[in-house]
Amino acid sequence: MIYCMGDIHGNYKGYKSLLQQICFSDKDILYTIGDVVDRGEESMKVLLDMMMRPNVYPIMGNHDWMAFQCLKWFSQDITEESIAQLSEEKMDAVKEWFVNGGESTLREFRGLSAEQRELVMEYLGEFSLYEEAETESGSFLMLHGGLDNFSPERPLEDYTAGEIIWARCDYEKTYFPDKFLVTGHTPTRNIRSHLHLPMNDRIFSRNNHIAIDCGSGMGGLLGVICLDTFEEYYA
After folding, report:
1. Cβ–Cβ under 8 Å, residues 161 and 147
2. CATH 3.30.70.360 is held by the domain 2-62+126-234
3. Cβ-proximal residues to 177 (8 Å cutoff; 6+ apart), any chain
4. What are the angstrom distances between the C-alpha of 117 and each of 86, 122, 172?
5. Hey, where are the domains in the chain?
6. 2, 138, 142, 221: most buried by Cβ count inside 10 Å?
7. Please, are residues 164 and 130 in contact by the beta-carbon 8 Å criterion?
8. 59 pairs with which residues across the strands?
9. Exposure class string for 211-227: b at 16+ Cβ within 10 A, else e
């Protein structure tokens, strides 16, 4: 079976609970839709577990991107002196990351061994911008945010990282009539609010969209969907 999991945001317990619920095995495939890290307290535990699973394919989210950029500056010796030597531009980036929940990620990163830090940085650098999958239920394009400056004729490889990981979809618009666009980034409660629908933290499907950020980073749920059967699971 092929599964796709929403924005985890350091929710290790929810992540492990969902793996148990779907009876995840070596024969299955799991895509994570981005924002594995930040806000929650166990981002590194999630990453270290994912790294050990060759059938888990991580997609880059804006939080993963911010963490990767900032942790590069802290990945050697993290001291008060090294922090003080950061340029103003880098400090502004770190401050923005902290405002968006990065402080807990840095704190946990600092607790890793030098070898673990190196492996985590290597792993974060391998996150893809998008993934595609085919099942008997249809074709799926999975990415974190959206497709800024979208055109149906524009090749996916022409989109920049910024156009994908920071963008937000228009969920009233069908981007691809022949495939499902699976995204995170925008909590489904916010999508429903914008569309004047009753709010909840469940997976949202409409107009060939499948939105699966169920608010794990803001006290909501962590969701996963099976792309073969459209079954939904929550923690």
Report:
1. no
2. no
3. 208
4. 19, 9, 42
5. 2-62+126-234
6. 142
7. yes
8. 128
9. bbbbbbbeebbbbbbbb
Q: Residue 123: how many CA atoms within 13 Å on its side-chain side?
A: 22
The H or E element spanning position 108 is helix 103-110
- Report pLDDT digits (tens) over 166-207: 999 999 999 999 999 999 999 999 999 999 999 999 999 999
Which residues are 221's β-sheet partners? 215
In the sheet that holds 138-143, the strands lie side by side as 130-135, 138-143, 180-183, 209-211, 204-206
Q: Which amino acid is at 192?
A: R
Nearest residue to 181 via CA among 167, 192, 200: 167
Alpha-carbon Rg for the chain, nearest whole angstrom, is: 18
CA-CA distance, 164 to 144, in Å (whole number)?
A: 7
- Taking a C-beta distance cutoff of 8 angstroms, is the pair 65, 129 a contact? no
pTM above 0.85, yes or no: yes
